[in-house]
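chain below, 1486 aa
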Amino acid sequence: MRGYLLGILVVPLLKHCICSDVVNFNGDIKDFVVGKSKLFVLTDHRLHQMRLDLSEEKRKDITNATHQNRVNILVPFDDNDTLITCGTFRDGYCEVLDINDITKSIYDESPISVGPEQNEKSVGFIAGPSTGRFLLVGKKDEPTKPGDPYPVVKLWNTLQSQFGGIFTNIEVASTPFIQSTARDVEFVDGFQRVSSSDSYLFLNAKTVSERKVHVLWMNSNKTKKTEIFKSLQSATIECCNDKARPVLVASTVIPSGNGVIWAGVFSAQDQQDPENTALALYDISRVQGRVKGFCTTGEKCDSESGSNLQPLSVVFKYSSMSSVAADRSGSWIVLFIGTSDGQLIKLVLDEKFTPGCPIVLYQSDDERAVLPRMHFDPVDFKHIYIALRKELRRVSVVQCAKYSSLEDCRAALDPLCGWCLNTQRCSTQDECSNTSWVSIPKNSLKTQLLSFQMTENSSRKVTLHLGLSLESTGNPAFSCSFTTGSVNVCDGSDLTAVFPNCSCSFSDHILYTGVSEVSATVAIKDEKITETLTLRNCSSITDNTNASYTQCVQCVSSGCQWSSSSQRCDWTHGPGPQLLIQDACKDLLSEIKYRKPEILSLEHSHVSFHGRNNVSLKGRNLESVTQIHIQGDLDCIPKESPVFDRSSDTLRFNIPPSGTKGTVKVCVVTPDDRCHGNSIITYSSQPSCTGIQPTVSWRSGGRKIHVQGSNMELVESVIFQNPVFQTHYNRSAGDMWFHSPKSYNRYSFKLKVGNSTVDCGHLSYEPDPEFTGFTTLQVADYLQVNIQKKADALNLSMSEVNVTGLRGDQQYQCVLEKIESNAVICKIKGESPAVTSVDSLIINVGNFTKTLESPSPIKYLYILGALILLIILIAVVGAIVHRKSQRQMNEKMNKQLEMLESNIRRDIRQGFVDLQTEKSDLIDNVGAIPFLDYKHFASKIFFPEAGPLSTVMIRDIGEDSAQTTVDEKCEAFAVLIRDKQFLSCFVHALEEQKNFSIKDKCTVASLLTLALHGDLVYLTEVMEDLLQTLMDQSSNANPKLLLRRTESIVEKLLTNWMSICLYGFLRESVGQPLFLLVSALTQQISKGPVDSVTEKALYTLSEDWLLCQAQDFEALKLKVVFAVGTGGEVSEPLEVNALTCDTVQQVKEKILQTFQRKFGFPYTQQFRDIEIEYEKEGKFVMLQEVDETSEIRGHVTMLNTLKHYQVGDGACIKVITTRVHAPLRSQNSVKDDVNFSIKYFHMVDPDVETDLSKHPEKKALKFKEMYLTKLLSTKVAVHSFVETLFKSIWGLPNSRAPMAVKYFFDFLDVQAERKKISDPDVLHIWKTNSLPLRFWVNILKNPDFVFSDMVKTPHLDGCLSVIAQAFMDSFSLTEQHLDKHSPTNKLLYAKDIPQYKQEVKSYYKIVKDQPSISSQELKLFLQDESKKHQNEFNESAALRELYKYMLRYFSEVSQKLEQTDAPARLIEDMHKVKELFDNMKRSGWS
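prediction:
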């Protein structure tokens, strides 16, 4: 048991430690934000609250089938610990949520339109001074008429204390905003600077003739909205010099000490352009002027001033950038770029905005776009969150660990990565403590790791100066050595090496022998870098020769200096930056003579990232091309591909694979290393194959097989084991196919894509089609040919069959008309003279050919004779076979009848045994009874539909008192309804309205109950008055019908009053018997088979839920252990009863139920969060509801059972918590499938034909009547619990009825005397309708109103309905006349009802004979109940909801007051309340 309890404690601790770097949601991600170190993710239907490790904390439904909603504003308000959301539900609303628990609503308001009504972009963020924050929202509103200015930017209050209250945009005598006259406005981004409170908005504006990008600036440090908007400055942002890109896609602000550096992604709106989007940087710290079309309230929007903003630098161009985010590391800027083809790119800029080499951090396996918003991990900025359709991913911003050497770490050109000399690995600086961290120096993106120069002094001594392009945080040990072979080159006169430079001096005679190879070894602590240097005598490289490109290359690569003016090579003048060869020698490239090549076309310009083989390039002057360069936007070094076949106008090469997706440029390289031409290749995701059609071919091959999937144009060929077959692609139809090869077997095949393959499926083979003969028929001017064939599984189409008729030397095409399973019909038309016959046919089906000859007349005679003999033989054989089969059929029917009789006999006997041996041993331990507290019990009674009102009306512990305080307007209304005359008129006026529904009546009654809960004495008086009025109405001429239904406010009021007054009696006397009855019913039902799909059971009280197709089953005792932690430890075994026919889900539920009964408290996980394994032959096998071994009948799948897995008695079952063992989780519950009842079955036969011989466990024929004894045995099992419950209800604790019952029964007696009703049956019916029918039946049928965590299944509801019917029959005065046709629910308790009726009559008599309750006693009781539950309900919310009804029927209520001659002050007070509500917002949050 110790191990078991350890598991209970460990699992909850571990479940929050499981995290993942990717989360998939059910709907598309619409937006996500970061606030208070949490993520908030908005999808189509839900809002999710998540930790930074992507584990979910909370979720909130934002829409459902009946209430469609789209959230359009999602803004975290960190200063106030809240999350602001706005949406379209109820004509627009805004809601303030607790940022630590989004399921807690702090305030909501509707109708209010803050976000856009249509599915358009908007921008919202918190702005304004710290003393009074606003919600700044930029959105497009529709103008009243074209050309008129319309609001685009508004400021909304975020606090109730601000002028006008929360969620208003007004100021004293004005409503300020920014307006626009542009034809279309699309907001893209916006932010407020933390330091200076400057607010920026970025948007796309469209006029009739052009598109533009604008920035709006405002001084948000002002306290008034009008002043903020009056500070408006704006400018147009232009991009770029090479082409216009007038649409802003995404943007980010770059952290900066001085100025405001902003980066924007601009688009030319040309998806085919490889440079469609550009990322440009701007200084937006001084936005001045105005743009045309934007102005503040009261101004004209037609003026324009100031200049356009030009980019500081365009740092990156790509075909489809979709988002951008930025961080700063020292002098470096690190940009993170999302793309529309699903990539996350990292780009480093130095302080001069020079870009480094792009690095792909993540690449999706499809073409999902990265959403425009990306967010950094706010704790350490080491991760970035990106969204791709339904997926949220957490990506590390560094990948230092993949570089294994200092050289690789430096070559990455990533300022966030450096070499840690202590740990000898590439890491971030904070991961390298107390040691030197070596990294790339600033402004050295274009500098090589190692460079050297040579100088010569007057004494002919040469000095080699070597430098490393590195910097270090410490002063690491540093040394250099220079050797030729094993001989040290240096003469020892050099200075000590100081990181990162060193030198070596030697005599120049070493270089007179020609080229000298020197090995330079640099040691940085324990890290060594070795490189071979090629040294030459600088002054002799160009001696007595004309300067050439080759000499220039030799000069620069030897550490010498090339003079472009003198065209000579010489010694350098000391250490310094080494020029790149292409920069130093560019003037000499023109010396190489050739005809300039041109590229005209590329055979395949769209490939997968696996590349493509044998691609043809067409052009001119291609004979001098040495290789192909492929340069991508994400490649720093171009890929080189050799040419393997060339001519002057054609060459062939292989397109190499790419690690990234996107567009690359292709050019051809000539001997001078120049690259010519500019063609384009687009890399995309690899093809995916979903299947082929058709899936079968004839053995001779040649059938056209269509391959289904995506990106099929990228496939090169089809591979069948070894043979390769060419594919064909129709670009306009998007169709790819190949012709099947000749084969006799079933083959798998693959699609060849570059040097990779993609699995696609199998192609089966059937014998070639068999054509047996043909006949002809002359019809009008054509000859119809009927070809006979044998039926096959090929399913030939008319396009696959070609028929040619031969007559002599003439050939005639036979046009196909129809293909059937055993015939082909075609016609030979249009010949002159008409064709009347053919000698033979040639039939071609792919590679298969068949020739049919026309049969001769003699042949027909032989066939006719053979047919006659065959008919006679068949008749004789048929007679013999018929007699034999008849005899066998009779024997088989007799056996089946005997088996059926035996089964019926056995089932009836088993039912008798169950009935006689049934014991009531169901309850062993139920633990503490989980009563609902009073406020939640009352909310379920008052609002049984569990709508939004039920949650709003409850005041939770710790709730802001301001939210529930009764303010001035509510206080005034509360005083008004405490006037009995007003309240009476109010109720009657509402009930007289035709559009005031029964649902409205119940709602108003419950709201009145809550509003007056603090004064139950007054509520009781009002109820009495309304009941007397109801009794006096002419429509209640038949008094026996009174209180039978809930068709008035007072009848629902009575239900609520009874629930309030009897809650104590319910908990003290009736709660335990009711809980034991429900528990006993649940256990009894689970003792026998329960169909998991229909929920019908063998043991039940309801005939409607009786299972009549139960399979044979056996009882099992399972030893269940619980996995503890992740180390393989398990708990002590727990014995659980189960059945062989139980599904996996039913076994899980029985395990959890047994656990709770055993230990008195529930297990820490629900059944959806656990998996179970079965120990078989020393190994644990996971039990799943459906797997690949599941039986399939027709179109439905049978759920797996313990019998399916061959689980025997005493078997060991292990319970695993899925959140701890996440990789083991195999599937969600199949019950989550909306088509669960259609796609799956358990024991009730699906509606498909089934061969019963294959399923002997199935009962071939069963009558429901055979199982009616199961109803009786179930009744016997739970009968003692039913009787105990009934006696507790009409029992009398301490020989006294509950005070409310005695009081109300006396009230009814008085009313009967007042109405002069002498019939005792009427009083009996009144009491029955007011107490058992109105209260106890509701409790009996809904135990979930009383107990927490109780799941009322439809089956359990059916059983409780039978018991409730018996309960009500006990109060009936009508004698029951039952026979064999009566319903079973009446027959089941027929013998018990007379006894119960006597007990009920005795109960009514005892209550009547008890001493009456004095008014003072009742008053004290009611006051005590009010006091006991004060502060549990939100009276303010109830009053506000009640006021809505008064406002809706204001004139009718006023008229009713006038008709009843009510005092004038009541009408005045009513108008005063309306005025208060009209002038003030609902108070709920400040």
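The mean pLDDT is 84. Residues 1090 and 1097 are 4 Å apart (CA to CA).
thats it, cya
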